[in-house]
Amino acid sequence: MNVRFSWMWKAFVAGVILVGVAVASLAVGGEYAARQSDFCGGTCHAMAEPYDTWKASKHRTGERTVACNECHYPPGEDSAPGSGFNGLKQLASYLSGDHFKVRKGANVSSQSCATAGCHAGKAFEGKEIRFQDKIIFKHKSHGQDLQCVSCHVKNSPDRHFEVPKEICFLCHFEKTKVNDGRNRCTLCHVLPTKSLQKQKSKDDPDAKPITHQTLVEAKVGCPSCHYRPAGHGGEIEKEVCRNCHWKTREWLVANAEGKLVGGRDERKQMHDLHVVSPQAGCFDCHRPVDHKAQASDFLEPARRDCAACHPDHHRYQKVLLEGAARDGIAKTPSLMMGSRTNCTGCHIGETHKKGEKVLTGSAKACIGCHSESQGKMADDWKNTVVKEVKFAKELEQEAIDALAAAAGKAPEEKRNKARALFDRGVASLNIVEFGNGVHNKKFSIMLLDAAMNDFEDAVDILN
After folding, report:
1. Least enclosed by CB within 10 Å: which of 6, 185, 341, 377?
2. Rounded to an integer, what distance in angstroms lies between the CA atom of residue 68 and that of residue 199?
3. How crowded is the C-beta side of 155, counted as CA atoms within 13 Å?
4. b/e map of 164-187 (b: 16 or more CB within 10 Å)?
5. Would you say residue 90 has pLDDT above 70?
6. How far apart are CA 239 and CA 255, in angstroms?
7. Which residues, in sequence order, are bridge partners of residue 356?
8. In a 3-state reduction of DSSP, which class is residue 286?
9. Taking residues 269-284, what's their average pLDDT?
10. Residue 438 CB burial class (10 angstroms; 0-12, 13-18, ≥19)
11. In this structure, are residues 425 and 396 in contact, taking their beta carbons and an 8 Å threshold?
């Protein structure tokens, strides 16, 4: 080997070594850089929003900084040699310009959240945490078949992740009974201690203050005043499956065999496949469940339930309860309007008519809220109204006879005026007679007085 060749060989080897060292340094440096949180937000505009919200979150501003890799890689993988190359591969994919490639949303393993020094251990599971500053809950009771990301999701542009209350509504209200099990009102709401009475009888020595506590003790159901606090929702339509399984063999076979919606075991299997894994968010499949303050018209929802079989049923009862102003009659709402008590609050009795179950008003409902002595109140009101209706019906008949006698005799102008008074009187009488005046005794007496005056005035005009 001559000197010149030896020198060139050594130079070549040295060059290869230098290039290798440079490449290795770049790889190590690039791999290290790719594991830094700044790499995520500084290299990809698609990560700008998550990065900014992370910087403002407790994971960045808390006692210690939690890097992106600590959450977005399973425990141990975030600091493992070569883990940063995943970030470099994602960057390469992004820079390749392959805009037609579907990129899945970031996933966080529950194991990453439950590592030592974060949210691990029985102490954390049993810790009382305030949700939206009002509701106290524990993670321990929410651990059945749920992942952390089942509740903690990226929902709004200004927060890195959060727990939307709609997710709570879905689990607590879907396919449940009002105030039962996971739908129990006191799981989230603290019973108010303020009295519900706007007035209290001074003549009743047994009168007691009416509060939410006394109503619970008397076993007065929440729907009596809070009718259907949660609306419809939670349903799954088969068509949403197409969003992920479009024209796949599994979709076509399952759809053809009708197995997408099945019994309890099949529903659990679907949940395990889509949630426990996890793959899908709650509202990728389910419709949201509505839960909000009751509408101002709290009588109409209860009445509409009856209207499914009885069109416009109980219309007169609603008129009495609301006590809206009418011709010459001042607005006089029922006393129960102040407490927003709907039909189901008083109709707790049950009977059967023509083979159908009918809910009836019961004095026990009065006692449940008030006192034993007030149990007779409903009967007293009923008897008073019945007597007044009888008097009004007698005057109505007199007006009918007078109109019949005046036919073809009295001037048309007088007959028309008398007929208008008679019709108005009948309308007032019908409200009390068919709406059952006990729903609003005071307003009923005012209506009957007005009706009797109209009947008498009609007779006087014709005479």
Report:
1. 6
2. 60
3. 16
4. bebbbbbbbbbebebbeeebebee
5. no
6. 10
7. 353
8. strand
9. 74
10. buried
11. yes
Whole-Å CA distances, 350 to 51, 155, 251: 61, 47, 48
Q: Which helix (H) or strand (E) holds 352?
A: strand 349-353
Identify the CA nearest to 244 among candidates 268, 270, 276.
Answer: 270
Rounded average pLDDT over 260-264: 49
Label residue 118 exposed, middle or buried (CB < 10 Å: 0-12, 13-18, 19+): middle
Burial of residue 86 (CB within 10 Å: 0-12, 13-18, 19+) is middle
What is the number of alpha carbons within 13 Å of residue 91 lying toward its C-beta?
16
Residue 381: count other Cβ atoms within 10 Å of its Cβ. 19
The C-alpha atoms of residue 184 and residue 177 are separated, in whole angstroms, by: 9
Q: Residue 9 is encoded by which pair of tokens?
A: 């060989």
- Is the preceding omega at residue 192 within 30 degrees of 0, hence cis? no
pLDDT tens column, 111-170:
888 776 788 777 787 888 888 777 888 887 776 567 788 888 887 888 888 888 888 888
Residue 249 and residue 247: Cα distance in Å, rounded?
7
CB 455 within 8 A of CB 396: yes
In order, the DSSP letters of 354-414 are TTEEEEE--HHHHHHHS-GGGGGHHHHHHHHHHHHHHHHHHHHHHHHHHHHHHTTTS-HHH
Instruction: Answer whether residue 3 shows pLDDT above 60.
Output: no
Residue 273: which pLDDT band, with cuts at 50, 70 and 90? confident
CB of 208 within 8 A of CB of 214?
Answer: yes
Helix (H) or strand (E) holding 350: strand 349-353
Encoding tokens for residue 144? 């059945």
Q: SS3 breakdown of the chain: % helix, strand, coil, rounded to 5?
A: 55, 5, 40
**How many C-beta atoms lie closer than 10 Å to residue 369's C-beta?**
21
Answer yes or no: are the C-beta atoms of 220 and 346 closer than 8 Å.
Answer: no
Q: Tell me if 137 sits within 8 A of 131, measured CB to CB.
A: yes
Question: pLDDT at position 461, please?
Answer: 92
Identify the H or E element spanning 285.
helix 282-285
Helix H, strand E, coil C: the string for 114-151 is CCCCCCCCHHHHCCCEEECCCEEECHHHHCCCCCHHHH
Task: Classify 433 in phi/psi space as left (phi over 0), alpha (psi -120 to 50) or beta.
Answer: alpha
User: What are 218's two structure tokens?
Assistant: 């008397």
